[in-house]
## 1
Amino acid sequence: MTRTATHARRPRWRAAGVAVACAAVACAAAAADNDAAAEVSAGGVVTFGLRSDHHADALALGLMGRGHWHRREWAQVSPRAGDNLAQIDDEARLGWQQRGGAFDGWQIAVLARSQATLVASHDALALAAQVARGHTLAADTDWQTRVRLRAFTGAGLALGRAQALGFVPAPGRWQAAWEVQALALGRWRQRDIDGPVHLDAATQRYGFALASNEADNRLNLPFQQPAGRHGAGLLLAGRVDWQGEASPAGWTPWARLALRDGGWLRWRGLPQQQATLDTATAGTDADGFLVYAPLIQGQNRQSTVTRWQPWRAALAAGVELPDGQRLGGRLDTVPGWHAALPSLTWQRPAASATASGWTGLGLAAEWQLHQRRLTLGVDWRGLSLQAGADRLGGDARSRVWALAWRQAL
């Protein structure tokens, strides 16, 4: 059942109220690429992993953790040209991978996740910074604002399997893996803001014509009915790996296609709000004179919402050299972002390092072009560590770290 209420009011509109919060990209690739290097006996493998990937184009990560922003924080926003991306992608996981027997290749894990993606136009962020700084502009100025925020947190179970694809009628070795995640959601937030903003230089007054659509389980609406305490999520992931035949020169081509986080999110009685702001709304006063005043008009409702969660994709390819080193590149896609995010990768897996006399030490490096981030990884006896940033210190705008551990039983 849907409950609807309409409202119209004339409160103060905070011009800097453009949501820019968070950031994200998966950061445990080194542990996944080293699966073949783990020497395990029949039985199974206990797996444990932590990863955290935070990125923001327009501001330092240290500002993102503050719950309430004031003029000082907004004044430090410095957007790039075009759209700006911010992400958070965190996960903790404890699992079991079966080796041998009837359930060979099956995996089960408990996990907790937090993910958020924000895509905002340059104008939206530049406007927020301009208002916060209070600078006087000499000419009339227009901004076209556009903000898209998608976020959820949840915990639950993951079930999957990895196996060789010996039946594929194509040259080379083929392998595949898939996973299903069933999550209980603790937070779901979705926010869209669109519309033009104009500054009259003569009066230094702003004119807004904005539309906002928000769905958030923490919204407090007038006459709100009880909503579901938790939502539900069903997310899917899949991966296909290919390794070709060695060339006469000794190098071997490889490729990988991976999809993740496609699926459904659902919340019963989710509070939702639609609102428009027009600072030049015409009306008449008690004497019949025409006046213009800010007006917010909107609609509140509650309903059961089911939303398709778009896929995140990664396409990687490269070559493996005779000494075991792997060189390649990768393209990642993020829902709502207009282009692929490219990376350059290098890896010396632990298995080949042992053959070269490195006593089982694996090394990896990655350069992500959009994030401007260098990430280094080390793998030794089932323990993988990864860390990267675009710069050192508190001004970093992109940071990733991961810890993965595998123990055969």
## 2
Amino acid sequence: MKYLIPIACAVLLSGCGVDPRQQYNRAKDAYAAHDYLSAKLDLVDLLEKDTGNRDARELLVRSYLALGDGEAAAAALLKLDPAQRPADYKVMLGEAALLRSRPDEALEAVGQVKGAGAERIRALAYLGKDNREAAAAAFAKGMISGQRDPRLLADYARFTLQQGDVKKARSLVDAALQADPNSLDALLVNGRTATAEGQLSLALDSYSRALDSYPGNLAAIVGKASVLGDLGRTDEMEQLLDSARSKVGGSDALTYLQARAAAARNDWKSVRNILQANETFVRDRDDASILYAQALDRLGQEEQARSRLMPVLTRSPNNAIARRLLATVQLKLGDANGALKTLEPLVGQPSALAEDLRLYAKAAKAAGRPDADRIAREALFPTPQSLAAELANADTALRARNWANAVVIYERIIAVTDGTNPLVLNNLAYAKGQLGDKADALKYALEALKYAPTNASIMDTAGWLLFETGTDRDRAVKLLREAAAKAPDNATIRQHLEKAQAAG
């Protein structure tokens, strides 16, 4: 009779019949591969048999910290022999305290410890105490410590991004990636910064790299799924979310993204059902509340939609999306005067968006305003100030490589004009191409070429997109050759032509 190894020994007790040194080396390899759960399982089992193994206990602490388990890390740290504590013991103690939301304990842990790691703990602890000035000072002190700590740089970038300083955040992110190209913190904040810049392709690449190196990381999954949604790649977004639920379980962030995916399919019943089942987190998130209200509005439940939006505007009175949606709902409920009042902050400036002016005109007519016809006439076309402001914002977004915002603004300009401005069409094509939407980009590029067939930049955009999409290589080379002849000093056009010709 052939005896079988018991399943509990074969699967759960990873060290069954394994030499302790081999088991420790296996845990080290798992940790190096960012498989912290496997490392933890091996180390816990090993320490049950070899309680004095100092190296295994230290690696277990680091595994707990990497897994975000502050309680287990703190308990394991206390078991380290005081005479054998690692040099960064107090920093790890502070990290464990932060994971348990105990900023005062974290500050006490690092005490008089110097260096980038300790300053990072201080900065995050001060943020936990809502002391942004002290946090900024700690980050700045860490920067002059002489140590290029990727985690400090990444957290500092995240802090500056929250302050609205995208340019400084980008500089810090680049420094973090230079210090460690595989740092999870650096990759995640790179994704967030690229999203803020409108560089969605870069954001997607960064989150994908994070997931490749740190499989199952929730923040990377959420970031990548969100960007896929922004790019309109709903099928890929849903596949990632389905895979994530089977690996990491549920979370508020994944729930919201699941609702977003349903909205992209116009499945508003599913959006409502998903968010209705998660009322607690919906109440605390403006984006979830707005999406919930949108679903309720689409399903004819305007009164409930209004009740969802009012708290959002109480918390965030400058939220234009919430104002626009609330005004729409108020009009459906017959509250035209309420809609007018809601829209007033959006239409009170010469640079007001045409879509807001048109909604305001509709509300004025419904309210029986005597000047409703005049408002309606003025809303038919954007004011010169409005159009100039939109063009300036689009140009700023384009120069900042904020492709996503540029696309939104250029599409808005086309919607309220006759759509024949070749520079607007060309810039929209360029921005869409940078986002990876090459087919749609080519459509706008060819439309721009129709209105300005001899403009070198427009010929270059159309020719290069024809080449990139493989639509018409012969025409691509012809356009690029003519563009190069018109602008011989333009290095970009020359490079495009050389690449197209080299491809045959």
